[in-house]
Design goal:
By secondary structure, this protein is an all-alpha fold. The chain has one domain. It is built from 23 helices and no strands. Helix 6 runs parallel beside helix 22. The chain is globular, with a radius of gyration of 22 Å. The protein starts with a helix and ends with a helix.
Length: about 525
């Protein structure tokens, strides 16, 4: 029976992965795959759907929908106010076209570490990148790797305090905050960034030696209107690409005036001290760099203060009451800190840029709508993980994972890596792994004296490695908006997004095993 049940788990996961890659909605696939696994295991199907799947999915919504909501609104307001474009333009003007690759990386890192949604960053950085690469005479095939390095590696999984949803997911499981294992996180971030920049330098020199310069990009696909890209991409962050600005609006607000003859425009945009951008935001120019960057600093600063100073000093004994879940602050403090940080940053953003927001209600509505599909999709994967974890045959999987040589840190890294690879989603793989194995790893931590903060950092970095396989929604969408193909650009994405992250993960496991969490 255990063998048949194990086959059911494999078949259910195969159905989930295979059909989601073909563009089927995970809202339907996750419960269907869970029911197939339950049926092949000889378990009551309807009971697993209504009594196991749905409570787990609803629990995820209860914990994380506020973060998705505040994060998506923040990303939309940053986009519509011109703040993301202003920050990107400042980076390119400061570094100039000779350092085009570095400018793209740092611009992406600045906005995503501050809380801007991944897809908002993609749609701003792609036109900026083409302008920079044209001025630097670099082949655009290098651009997806530069954007990926800045947006989807160290700012997502390693830098302490990052408001990325991947960094928030382990907090309720391990009772940690977004600043878990900050020293190890900084070391991991340095490895990812340093290795990635080294590789981009190598491929840039090769391209120049080969005489390979800029060429017009291939046809692009719009993730805001392409249903396949939208379906693949909605688990890559907390923003639904359908709520991005329309193509006409993006052309009108193009940072470098791509619709205008590029020479003089690009020269102005990449000259240090020149006005940033050519777009109009409610009749006004883009904001200055201080006003544009201040909301990002608010996110990081308030998150740090709330996590380490404010919340621990509050009297939160009321959380032990049944109506509040009978928990302590460690179960909710990390989520509360990020939530408060994003909420305050949204207020600051509106106060600074209300004149540039042509229709504040429309921007907020679009941001709120953008949170719904991603959070429901990830919640469905949580439900799938709960059903799988409840099956008798899952004991075999658990024994195999915990039996991996190297200890619990290696076991946790392997499980998150594999599930992120299979689902093509860091958040999806992480939620399935922790829903199924999180309590087990916490028990191991208590038994062995492991710091849960170390488990947190290993889990997040592990989920952000093999998730970048070819079927990953963020990878597919990034290539589409850059006008590149897998054949042209995917090898470099693998090196900066997978190899560098794996090196950082190994370093964290080794250092954490020797010195513990720091």
């Amino acid at each position: 029976m255990d063998v048949i049940g194990l086959l059911g788990i494999v078949v259910g996961l195969a159905l989930l992965v295979g059909f989601s890659y073909r563009g089927w909605t995970v809202l339907l696939l996750a419960p269907a795959a869970a029911l197939v696994a339950a049926a092949l295991s000889g378990q009551p199907v309807l009971a697993h759907w209504t009594q196991v799947f749905m409570p787990a999915a609803a629990g995820f919504l209860a914990q994380f929908f506020p973060l998705f909501l505040m994060g998506a609104i923040f990303g939309k307001l940053m986009e519509d106010s011109g703040s993301v474009r202003a920050i990107a333009g400042f980076m390119t003007g400061w570094l100039g076209p000779r350092r085009a690759l570095l400018a793209v990386v740092l611009a992406g890192a600045a906005v995503t570490y501050g809380g801007v949604s991944l897809f908002v960053a993609f749609f701003v950085l792609a036109p900026m990148g083409h302008a920079m690469f044209r001025a630097a005479d670099l082949p655009p095939r290098l651009m997806p790797a530069a954007i990926a390095l800045g947006t989807s590696t160290f700012t997502m999984s390693a830098l302490p305090g990052t408001p990325a949803i991947q960094n928030a997911i382990p907090m309720p499981f391990f009772g940690t905050t977004a600043f878990a294992a900050p020293g190890l996180g900084l070391i991991a971030a340095a490895i990812m960034l340093g290795f990635g920049l080294w590789w981009l330098g190598v491929v840039e020199r090769r391209a120049r030696r080969a005489g390979e310069g800029y060429r017009a990009p291939g046809p692009t696909r719009d993730a805001a209107t392409d249903p396949l890209l939208r379906e693949r991409g909605n688990m890559a962050g907390h923003f639904d690409p359908a709520e991005l600005s329309s193509p006409d609006e993006r052309r009108q607000l193009d940072l470098f005036g791509a619709e205008v003859d590029g020479g003089s425009t690009i020269a102005a945009a990449t000259t240090p001290g020149a006005p940033v951008g050519s777009g109009s935001f409610n009749g006004l120019g883009p904001p200055g760099i201080v006003a544009a960057a201040l909301p990002l600093l608010v996110v990081v600063g308030i998150n740090l203060l709330a996590s380490l100073i404010v919340l621990p000093r509050l009297d939160t004994g009321y959380l032990a009451e049944r109506r509040f879940g009978g928990v302590d602050l460690s179960a909710v403090g990390g989520v509360w800190a990020v939530l408060v940080a994003l909420f305050v940053a949204n207020l600051v953003l509106v106060a600074l840029h209300w004149r540039r927001l042509a229709d504040l209600k429309r921007s907020i509505d679009a941001g709120a709508n953008a949170a719904v599909l991603p959070v429901l999709s990830v919640a469905s994967l949580v439900g799938f993980g709960a059903v799988v974890a409840s099956l008798p045959a899952f004991g075999l999987v658990k024994d195999w994972v915990l039996g991996i040589e190297g200890g619990p840190l290696v076991s946790l890294a392997v499980s998150t890596n594999l599930l992120a690879a299979l689902t093509g989603s860091a958040s999806g793989g992480l939620t399935i792994a922790l829903e199924a194995l999180g309590p087990t790893f916490m028990q191991v931590a208590h038994t062995t004296g492991l710091d849960p903060a170390l488990l947190h950092r290993v889990a997040v970095i592990g989920a952000g490695t093999l998730d970048s396989l070819p079927h990953n929604g963020a990878v597919v969408s990034l290539l589409a908006v850059c006008g590149c193909t897998h054949k042209e650009s995917y090898r470099d994405i693998v090196v900066v997004g997978i190899v560098g992250a794996l090196l950082a993960l190994v370093a964290v496991i080794v250092l954490g095993g020797i010195f513990g969490s720091f």
